[in-house]
Amino acid sequence: MKGFVFHGPGQSAWQDVPDPAVKEATDAIVRVDAVTICGTDLHILKGHVPEVRPGTVLGHEAVGEIVETGRDVHTVRPGDRVLVSCITACGRCRFCWERTYGQCHGGGGWILGHVIDGTQAEYVRVPYADMSVHTLPGALDSRDAVLLADIFPTGYEVGVLNGRVQPGDTVAVVGAGPVGLAATATAQLYAPERVIAVDLAAARLDAAKRLGADAVADAHEGPEQLVEDLTDGLGADVVIEAVGAPETFELCTRMVRPGGHVANVGVHGGPATLHLEDLWMRNVTITTGLVDTYSTPTLLRMAAAGRLPTSSLVTHSFPLDQMEEAYDIFARAADTGALKVVLGEPQHDVVAVRAA
C-alpha cells in the first residue's frame, strides 16, 4: 500500500509501505476513505516533535471501513464505517477511567502518526479499537465526519469547556485556523454575549464571521483595544489561544479580565513567558490540554443532525494519492486560503473557497 512517510525535518514522501496487520487482539484494520492534515503534522515535518521517528506514516484523523479485527474487538466488525479518533484509549488505566484519554498510560493517548504509523495511508492499524473508533451514522458525509476526529473535539474540549464559557460571556479566540474556528463555532452552544476572532489573515477572519463571530480583529491592529472597548474596559471572560506562539499566548493573558480564563489550545514548539508579575493578583485561570475526545459521540450526533458547521471548513479536496500536493497547499495557507484539506473519497477536483 501507499502512505505518507516522515523521513526527518523537511523530508517526506508518498511511497510504498508495508500493509498493516493485526498485532494485538484489540486491534482493528481500517481502509481509509477520507483523511485530513493537521497543523501538528506540519510541526512534525519541521522537526518540532522529536519523538516522531523517521519512517513513520503520519496522520491521526480518518474515516474508513473496518476490514479486519482482533478477537477481542466487540463493538465494531468488518464492513462498519467508522471515524478513527486522533486519541487512542486503552480503557483500563486510571486516566481512561477519568475520561482523560489523551493521557492514557496503557499504550494509548496520541499515538497514531506520532509513535506508531498513522492514518495518511490506504490502510491503518488502530489499537484498542473498541475505545478508539466510532461507528458513523449513515447520513454523515465523510468530509464532514473526518473533522470530528480532532479539530472539533479539540476546539470544544480544550478551548470552550476548559475555558468554562458561560451564557453572557465575552469570548476572544486568538487564531482563526481550523481549531480556532471550531472553538468559535462551538462556543456559541453556550450563548455568549459575543465572540471575537483575532488573526492575521483576512480570509480566516471572514471564515470566523461566517461561523458566527460577532467581531473580528487583525492581530496587528489593536485587538486588545477592541476587547477593552467592547467590555467597558474589563477584558474578555474567556480567551482561547489557538496559535501556539509566545506572542499570542502573552496577548491572551493581556486580554483576559480579572477572574477570567485563558484556555491554551495551540501547540507550542518553544517557551513562552508567563508574566506572573502582572498576573499573580488577577485571579486568572490558565489551562492547557491535549484533547481527550470524550465529546466525540456527542459531536457526531450533532453533526448528523446538521447542528455543526463542519463542511464549511473544508476548502480543498484531493484524491488520496495527491498527498504531497495537499501538504503543499495546506502549508502555504496564507497564500492558498486553505483551512482544512480532505483527501480520499469522494475524489473531488481541487477546490479553493474564496473569501466572502
From TrEMBL:
InterPro entries: ADH-like_C (IPR013149), ADH-like_N (IPR013154), ADH_Zn_CS (IPR002328), ER (IPR020843), GroES-like_sf (IPR011032), NAD(P)-bd_dom_sf (IPR036291). Its cofactor is Zn(2+). One of its GO terms (molecular function) is zinc ion binding. Keywords: Metal-binding, Oxidoreductase, Zinc. Residues 8-343 form the Enoyl reductase (ER) domain. Pfam families: ADH_N, ADH_zinc_N. The keyword Metal-binding applies. It comes from the Bacteria. Belongs to the zinc-containing alcohol dehydrogenase family. This is Zinc-binding dehydrogenase. It comes from Streptomyces spongiae. The lineage of its organism: Bacteria, Bacillati, Actinomycetota, Actinomycetes, Kitasatosporales.
